[in-house]
Amino acid sequence: MNQSVSKSVWVIPGLLLAFLLVLGCVQLYSNANALFGAKNESSNYWITLSKTITPDNIGRKELIGFNANDLAELRKWSEVKQVFPIISNDFKVSADGGNFIPFYTDMYLEAVDNEAIDIQDLSAFKVENNVIPIVISREYLNLYNYGFALNQGLPQITEDFAKKIEVNINLTLKDKNVTYKGRLIGLSDRIHSVLVPKAFLDSLNATQSFAPKHRDIYTRVLVKVNDAKDGGLIAKMEQKGYESNQESLRSAKIKGKIMLVLQAIALLGVFILLLSVVLVINYIKMAFLERREEVSIKYALGYSPKKMVQQISFRFSRMLFVILLVTLGILSVAQYSLSKLSLSQGMLSPYLDPWLGVMALVIPFVMYAVVFRLIYRWLIRSWRLIT
């Protein structure tokens, strides 16, 4: 086995491994975004923030809630688009079914700007004729239908039927007790709460005796963000002691760890690639030195040094292109197999990310330019050694 073949035995597998690591990490990054969500400036995600309860702030609304300074700081976060404080009742609320449904429960009321409520038609969302329109979380209706109703032998109800039911809403205010009729007008997938019109709840809260330190304190805040799983957003929330949906936090942490692993693997691939290129360049230099007499004769006959280096660089780039095609073939099979696994839940494309094709076309040209420049500069500096 001559030296040329023995060099290829080590260089070609090294380049193949390097491209598998680098391009594989690009594809895995694309897969991670498909599974956990990609940051998109045009996307809108909604999260509800609250402060973590600790022994120091428990029962202290001025510490457990969001004040004006907290809201102002939230609005400055680059990851946040809009902030909507959630107002809660400052009086006792209860509900009963009257003679129609024999039940009684203490409850709570909250309110937020209509802009933040995910109900298309809010024309009926105003108090009229002693009737309070209510928006509840869809999860509340599901809990009743699939949990409480089945276990208690009660009838399950549809959304349309629920909108026809009226219940008594009993308010215990500072100066008097008032009873309204409550009527459901819609279900929210965004806010887990019992929502009433904001102007109505503000007017009732204004009749109560606020402690000065409790004025303009909001226990929860609804926030519109670009990406609920953004690592920077999660880091700021943890630093401030804010809580949100734990599934979003968990997904963000998993995604962050995956990205760190992919970056480490990609760096290893780049290192192997650079090492392989260095070996190839050294091999080319050795070939020139071993054939310096032949090169000198060609130069004397009019052969251009640039032409000779161009030919060698082109062969190297052509070899890279073939290796890249093999790499894409291996990754295509792996990606197709991965997309068919139940773990992917149908969220992964069976095809490679288009950026891999772009990289496969660009890399040979870049490496051609790099190798040509390095070899040619070396050859010119070393020309006296071979003439």
Give a brief rundown of this model.
The chain is of the alpha+beta class and about 375 residues long. About 55% of the residues lie in helices and about 15% in strands.
Description:
The protein has helices at 3-36, 61-64, 68-76, 138-152, 159-162, 198-205, 231-240, 246-290, 292-300, 305-339, 354-381, 383-386; strands at residues 45-51, 80-88, 92-97, 101-107, 110-111, 131-137, 166-172, 177-188, 194-195, 220-225, 242-243. It is built from twelve helices and eleven strands. It has two domains: 3-38 and 252-386, no CATH class; 45-244, no CATH class. It is of the alpha+beta class and 387 residues long. It is elongated. The longest helix has 45 residues, at 246-290.
